[in-house]
Each structure stands twice: as structure tokens, then as C-alpha cells.
Design brief:
heterodimer, A: MetI-like fold, 0% strand, flat, B: mainly alpha, MetI-like fold
Amino acid sequence: MAGQGSTTNFADAFASVNASSRWKKYLPERIIKAVLFICAAASIFTTVGIVSVLIFEAALFFQEVTLWEFLTNTKWTPLFASKNFGILPLVTGTLLTSIGAMFVALPLGLMSAIYLSEYSPEVVRQIVKPVLEILAGIPTVVYGYFALLFITPILRAISDDISVFNGLSASLVMGIMILPMVSSLSEDAMRSVPRSLREGAYALGATKLEVSTRVVIPAALSGIVAAFILATSRAIGETMIVTIAAGQNPNFTFNPFVPIETMTAYIVQVSLGDTPTGTLEFKTIFAVGLSLFVITLAMNLLSQFIVRRFREVYE
Amino acid sequence: MAQTIRDQFDRRMDRRRLYGHIFHALCLVSIFIGLGMLAVLLVDIFLDGWRRVNWEFLTSFPSRKPEQAGIQAALFGSIYVIGLAGALAFTLGVAAAIYLEEYAARNWLAKVIQINIANLAGVPSIVYGILGLEIFVRYMALGKSVLAGSFTLALLVLPIVIIASEEAIRAVPSSIREGGYALGATRWQTIWRLVLPQAFPGILTGVILAVSRAIGETAPLIVMGALTFVPFTPDGPMSRFTVLPIQIFNWVSRPQEGFHEAAAAGIIVLLVVLLSMNALAVLLRNRFQRRLEG
């Protein structure tokens, strides 16, 4: 650029050098930005991938089985000679174990949260909370082992009616697994309730119990409800505990003592078996997977909506 | 008259205090049930399996004889799959977080990506297995390989990495960025030289938590098609494989006592790895917090 003869206008040359160095300086910036954007968009591709795979494959399934049969038939025997494609037994199995788990996690988690937020000294809270959260980090296959080989023998010693594989044992252990989720999220919600509200109640002569149950819990209710819904959604999608401990018998029942099968356990059963891909039997896992995805997505959206819509904001 | 009202008040107050004490006790009991179950679980597994945890167990392949079965194939499978998945999730996740925190305009697209990430974190892990089977194994024809498995797990833990990295980047004070710009640094120079070093411990904590989640995942890899009986060490990214949790699952589902013992021993190995990773994450977090305050 410098050797273009003596008539070169200095200002022009300066501008062009400046422009080219700018170009050199900012081109990499633009490339970097584009690459980063693609990485951020990867999460969108994941969602698109999940939704399109499930819908596409499930659509092939529903060409052969009507949606009506899928939703209303009370028998699920796709792997047998006489085939029935009613998802209801898998749904009751899933509901049984999830609701059972919530019966454990809800009271224990909420009471733990109240203790940590309202009663415990700060030192205790700082130790107990992370220790409790270890429960959430233990792999589910470990809980499956614990349910089948520790809890179930105890239950069977108590009552002869309980089978080796049963919904009860899986529910109890799953409840312990999601307990820290309920307690941690509820505790966060309770701690964000301002002190002044509590102090107002104490000034009126309320006891600690009354402050906890009539002031703190109502004020934190949206966060607590959201925590419950998230935990339920987690229980519905949980796989290994129910696969190991609850059995692989799609029974249309709410009896917690007999073997059942959940939606997730069914998907694992087909994956482990030798069902050839492309057959109608194999396509069932996409229909079941789609149902599972829709149910958990609806619950997660509901929980986010409750937090946004009903949160009490304090200055 | 005044005396009876006073008596009545005292009686009620006593009753309210009593309820308070009962409630306090119940709360304590709840906490102890949670903590107690954790203790029982750990002790039960330790007692079941400690006899089998030795060098031979770590360096043997699975076997039809329970007393000879070991976890070498599963251990190497886990290391390969998790190593690849962790590296991938780290790169993708941190890049995505940088874009969302430092570049993205606060418009609808950024909002959609945010909501989408929150929802992806709530998708059951088994659904990721279906995704992996269809997209990586079949459509991209990677087969039921180490590579396909690590892609699947990387997508599964990606939301955890993104959310943690975003928080770490957000915690870097804007005065640091402004200092960079004032010295004529470009946006990327500012991020690379100033923001990321500050945010790194927080990002690392998130990555460790994500990896420890991935180590314990069983269902997505089963659905994706990982093997359950592998008498060889994977020899490359296209090799078929199994992982430690699947090996444990396989042993739990067998009726023989000996395999249950092997499963417990496998769980001990898995938990030792996981708990030390969690401890590392907590340590990093504490150090990070001290530095920000100091």
C-alpha cells in the first residue's frame, strides 16, 4: 500500500491502513461470535432432535395402532404373541411409584427444609445441607441395589404378601432419592422470605411453630409447590430403581405389593432384549418415550409457571 | 376474673409451646431419617462388598463365575466415555455460556435459548438415550460405540455445564470488563484474558458436577445400546463398550449371591470416585468464594 507512487494521498493511505487493520482485528471477533452462537444453538438442536425423533417414530407406530387403543386399552403385551398396546398399565405403574415416592419425600423434605431454614443453627445447616445433597448425587443404580437387596427383604419379613419385585420398595427408596431435591429447593424458597415478616409475627406473640407454618410457608408457597412438582417429574422419569426393584410385569393395578412395570422400565426392557429395530414391537419405545417426554415437560413448565406467576416478591 | 383470664392464657400458651416442641422434634426426626438412610445405604453396601474390592477385581474381566468377575472393561469404558463426554460438554457448554452472557442481545432468541436450556435439564435421562440411539447410532452411523455414548452423555449434562458457567461468568464484576475495553482490548480479548480466568473455578465446579452426574448414568447408555457383557477393553472411539453402572446393573439383576457381592464392590468403586469428585467441587467452590470476597 505504501509503494503506490509519490502522488498517494497521505490521508487516503492512512484510512486504508486503518480499515485493513480494523478488518484484521475484527474479523476473528466475528468468527468467534459466530462459533459461540452455534454452540449456544446446540441446545436448540438437541430439543429439536428429541422432539422430531420421538414424533417421527411415534407417528410410524400410530399408523399401525390407533391412538384410542393406545390410551384406553388396559393390557400392554407388545412382546407376546397376542399383542395389546394399551399404555394404561405402564401409566399406573409409573403413577404408583411416583406418588409413593412423593408420600415419602414430601413430608420428610418439607420438615427437613423447615428445620434447616427456621430451627437449625447456621453451623448445623452448613454441614447438614451438603450432606443431605449427597443423596441426590448417588447414582440411581445404587438405589436400585439398595431397594432390591436391602429394603425388599425387610418388607418381605414384615408381610408375606409382598413379592420379590414390588412397587412399594421402589417407591420408598425413590422417595429418599428425591428428598434432597424437595428439601433444598423448599429451603431456598423459605430463606428468601424476609426476616421482617418473621419478626412481625414474633412481635405479635407467635411461637416458632406458628411463624413457620402461618407466615413462612404461605410466603414461600410458590417455591415449595414448584419444588414438589419438579421432584415428581424427576420421579416419573426415574429409571433404574424401578427397573431393578419394581419388576417387569405391566399390571393394571395400584397394588404396591405386586410386580409392576413403569414406562421407563419398559423402555429399558426392550433395549436389553433382542427385539429387532424397525418392528412394531420396537417402535413402542418411541410411543412410550413420547408419552414420558410430554408428561415430564408439562410438569416442568407448570412448575416454572407457578414460580413466575405466584411468587411473592419482597423488597 | 383477671386471675381466670390469666390462667386461661397461661394454659393456652403452655399448649402452644408444647405443640412447638413436638413440631421441632418431628423436624429433627425428618432430618435424621434422611441422614440415617444415607448412612444405612453406605454401610450396607460397604459391608456387602468390601471383601471383593482389591486389585484383582479392578483388573479382571466379567466372568460367568462370580468370584472371578471384575470390572476392568467397565472401568475403562467409563473412563473413555466420560473423558470424551466431559471434554465435549465442557467446550460446548462454556462456549454457549459465553455467548449467552457476553454477546447475546436480550432479545427473544436469547430468551428462547434460556427457557429451552431450563427445560432440557428436566428431560428424563432415558429420553436422551432414545435420542442417542436414533441420531448418533443410526442416523450418523457411529454404531453403538464409545463415541456415540459420549455424545449422548455430553448432551445430557450440557445444561448443567451451561447453567453453572453462566453463573460463574455473571459473577465477574463488570468493572473488570470495562478496564479491558478502556485499554483498547477487543471483546474477545477481554473475555479470554480477563473474564474467563476469573470465572474459571466456578466453571470447573460446574463441569465436575456434570461429569459426576454422567459417571452414574445407566439408563441412557442401555437404551443407546451399550453392551452388558464385555470381555475386552475398548480399543478406540469406535469400539463397543460397557460402563461401570451398567456392569453393576447386570450383576444386580442376576440371582446368584456372588454377583450381588461383585455389584456391591463395583458400587464401592463408583461411590469412591463420585464422592471424591464432589469433595473436589466443594473445595473449589470454597476457594472461589474466598477469592471473590478477599
